[in-house]
Amino acid sequence: MVHKVVAEQVAGGISTTAIRIRESGIERRARFRGLAEPLSLLVALAVLIGVFSLLNERFLTASNLQNVLTQSAIPLIVAVGATLVILLGSIDLSVEGVMGATGMTWILLSANSRGGADLGPWAWVIALGVALVIGVASGLIFTALKVPSFIVTLGMWYVGLGIATMLYGTDLLPRLEDEGLKGWTSRISFGLPNSFWVALLVIGLGIFVLRSTRIGRVTLAIGNSETIVRSAGLPAFRVKVAVFAIAALLSGLGGILATVQLDIGSPTVGSGVLFIVIPAVVIGGTHLGGGKGGILRTVLGVFLLTILNNGLILSGVESSYQSAVTGAILVAAIVFAAWSQRDRLQVAK
Amino acid sequence: MNDVTTTPAVLRLDSVSKSFGSNRAVRKVSLNIQSGEVIGLIGENGAGKSTLLKMLSGNYRHDEGTIAVNGREVQFRGPADALRAGIGVVHQEQSLFTNLTIAENIEVNTPMGRGGVNRLGLYNWRRLYADAAQALDLIGSHLNPKTRVSDLSFVDRQMVEIARAIRVSAASHTTPLVILDEPTAILERTETAILEREISKLRDIGSVIFVSHRLDEVMRICDRVVVMRDGELIADRPVDDVTEEELFRLMVGRETHAAVRNRRSIEATSSPIISIHDLTRAGSYADVSIDAYPGRVLAILGTSGSGRESVVRAVFGAEGFDSGSVSIAGYSGHQLSIKRAVDLGVGYVPAERKTEGMVGEMPADQNITLTHPGSAAVGPFELPRRRLSLARMWFEKLDIRPREPLHMLQDFSGGNQQKVVLAKWLNSSNLKALVLDHPLRGLDPGAAETVNAQIRSVCDGGTAIILIPDTIDEALDIADDIVVMRDGRISGVFDLGHDNPATLDLLERML
Questions:
Q1: DSSP 3-state assignment of A215?
Q2: Cβ neighbours, 10 Å, residue B380
Q3: Chain B within 8 Å of A233 (Cβ-Cβ)?
Q4: Which of A213, A214, A228 sits opposite B97 (nearest CB)?
Q5: Given pLDDT bands bounded at 50, 70 and 90, which one contains residue A288?
Q6: B197 interfacial to chain A (CB closer than 8 Å)
Q7: Is residue B45 in some structural domain?
């Protein structure tokens, strides 16, 4: 009996100290985690900028920086959507196909060298409608038929390319005729390129959606555990379809801007974007398994890769080596970024 | 129906039954719970506890009988109905979004437009945090609702689950009934003490149904204990009128036959099978030397920061170490891998059974022959028929139920899964040492006894056992040697052949 009393006193003592230790631990860990990951990305970015500016004095000029921002704008817009999809634990590979289909639809319905209809703003609506249809189709096939998103969107990539190629037909290249739009993307307003302003708007909206809307929060929840989402009665189905639709809309917007930038309509207007977007999301630290990550990190990832590309060109790396160099750096960066997330037993699937 | 002058029972079950096909999972259960009561619900796996709870949480509908909450008869069509009636369940498997904040997890059941999320789905974080803080406050927790759940320890996560369970009823000012389904199964001793205190506080705001396999805990926390066996409620007693032994007998239907272990001191002539020498891992443990002898169970005690789990995992090669040595059956090397450890005859039953101990999507028989195919193998091939008969033998020997070795392992109950994991190692012809990391976690007393009996018989066959027990009592019950660790260092070594440490002795060395 005496023992029991003493033991209970001891246990009482533990619980108060244990609580205190625990609570301070929680705060410390949270603060550390909040800083550590973005910080290492910023350091990498700074190192990269430092190295390239030493290699070539043209790198750190206003005109080149504006150039970098213009180059990063379209990947940024697409990457916001890709981040949302990856936060679900899925992946969207249809990016380039959607860009092609949307871009072609848009230019053929705007003032172009082939003539035809000039629907003005309606061209935007219809073109983005095409993107939306592809996105909703991917989302529905993925969610309702439970086909892995990897396969669905890989197919949709080619469906999009196919639509773009059919629209392109055998006629001459459609050229942009509207003088106000030509070169609009790289024109500077208030110190930044126009397309970058669009990207900033999309990033802002993306952060808002992810942070303060039901779609965003349920997206994170699905990435964490879809079983719990369903048993909690949250709208998993609708959110998944919506996220694929949002991602396709953003790819579509990217496709239109890329067409404006290129001046001509081409089915392969999005070529190379996927290779920046997905790695940028991963380098940013968003888990491919879903649930963890964010849009600002992805933004850093896109900058890292765009600057890498830009810097390599300026440093005189021969273009034939460039893709091999970029690829190798990419793999290294991902190994580095994912190091802390390895499993306890070091199992990877 | 109810007398108007007395307050109606928070929950009243009147001969409630539920069948699945021909299987009558719950038979004519009647139960009354008053406000402020903490009821212990005990029973072996398969006794019908889970089915009963699922009817209360709205996951199943009852076939017969009536369920009344606060004097009104209810028909739950889903979990949302149960929550609205004030019944919140904290499930055994944690159901929190670890990547989201505490607040969002607590508010997850609050409909849009009524809490921090408006009808358009936009979040008002200030409102969300305030509502969650209020729910936490009700149960006396001071966790910051902005904290992410992944930063919390298990006991804090349980608090968040409890806060979520009472959230809906708190908003509508009804008395909540919180159902806790084995909340302490995975907690360390000190954490359990904290949770026990918190559960007692719930008395002031509502009532609790507490499901646990640890009878001592039930005796400490609850006012009344109800026992289920074979779908029936066979006893309903105030805790003051029963003993632990009596509860065990009611639950299992037989006496405990845990014989007192006949212990001897380590013989001077025997040499250790596993010898850990000055093992150190920065930040985890330092200078740990432990010898495990054949035919002896060595239990390592310590709290969650003691480093005992890491030491044990190092022995199996699952975690690295910085300096020192581990020698297994004469082999000693710095590069110990899991493969090498298995080849040397070490088996490991991990604490994380679901992720490290078993392949749930594979039939039980294939799990058994996974590491050591034994007689099922012919060269590099496995003969399904031999594998099946081998599995049947283990199913019989370890009383694994149901006797269906071809069923997916994930469909078995926790206790039976654990027995399959154990069989996987016992199937080795060359098992020299068995490392058991919380082997009884989540098992009901009946299953725990079978597992313990099997551990003893393996041990008596000359295998060295290294055990990380859940409780001090478990160690005193089964071990021959006890090593106590505190803050990564050994703080006590006892050979139970001649030492007789009291529980308090051991506890003091742990803290």
A1: helix
A2: 6
A3: yes
A4: A228
A5: confident
A6: yes
A7: yes
Count: domains in chain A: 1
For the sheet with B285-292, list strands across it. B285-292, B274-281, B323-328, B331-333
Q: What does the block give as tokens for A31?
A: 């603060």
- Asked whether residue B57 is assigned to any structural domain, the reply reads yes
Range with the largest mean pLDDT of A86-95, B303-312, B468-477: A86-95
Q: Is residue A127 part of a domain?
A: yes
Restricting to A residues 51-70, those with a Cβ less than 8 Å away from any Cβ of B are: none
User: Measuring CA to CA, which residue among B215, B138, B144, B210 is closest to residue B173?
Assistant: B138
Question: What pLDDT is attached to residue A6?
Answer: 40
Q: Which of B104, B503, B507 sits opposite A217 (nearest CB)?
A: B104
CATH of the domain at B21: 3.40.50.300
Which of A214, A222, A243 would you mutate first to test chain B, the one with the most B CBs within 10 A? Answer: A214
- Whether A174 maps to a domain, the answer reads yes
Say how far residue B457 (Cα) sits from the centre of its chain.
24
Mean pLDDT of B396-413: 86
In this prediction, residue A1 carries a pLDDT of: 38
Per-residue pLDDT tens digits for B339-378: 888 888 899 998 888 888 888 889 999 999 888 888 888 8
Complex-level ipTM? 0.80
In this structure, what token pair is assigned to residue B176?
Answer: 């909540």
Residue A39 lies in a domain: no
**Chain A residues inside the 8 Å CB shell of B156:** 22, 26
Q: Which among A3, A6, A14 has CB closest to B190? A: A14
Residue B206 lies in a domain: yes
Kindly list the residues from chain B whose CB atom is less than 8 angstroms away from the CB atom of residue A213.
121-123
Distances (CA, A) of B107 to B20, B129, B168: 34, 9, 9
Mean pLDDT of A197-218: 95
Which residue range forms the structural domain that includes residue B18?
Answer: 11-91+153-252
- The answer to whether position A95 is within a domain reads yes
- pLDDT for res A327: 83
pLDDT tens-digit readout, A28-84 = 555 565 566 677 788 888 988 898 888 888 888 888 899 999 999 999 999 999 999
Which residue range is the domain that position A130 belongs to?
73-294
Asked if omega into B402 is within 30° of 0 (cis), the reply is yes
Is B27 domain-assigned? yes
pLDDT of residue A338: 61
Which of A176, A22, A188 shows the shortest CA–CA distance to A104? A176
| Residue pair B215/B248 in contact by the 8 Å Cβ criterion | yes
Look at chain B and report how many structural domains it folds into: 1
Q: Residue B294 pLDDT > 80, yes or no?
A: yes
Q: Which DSSP letter does residue B112 get?
A: T
Output DSSP code: residue A304.
Answer: H
Q: What's the rounded Cα separation, in Å, for the pair B224 and B216?
A: 13
Residues of B in contact with A344 (CB under 8 A): 318-319
User: What is the pLDDT, as a whole number, of residue A16?
Assistant: 47
DSSP A77-146: HHHHHHHHHHHTT----THHHHHHHHHHHHHHHSSBTT-----THHHHHHHHHHHHHHHHHHHHHHHHS-
Alpha carbon of A293: minimum distance to chain B alpha carbons (Å): 10
Among the listed residues B463, B49, B101, the one whose alpha carbon sits nearest the alpha carbon of residue B227? B49
Question: A145: Cβ–Cβ under 8 A, 6 or more apart, which residues?
Answer: none
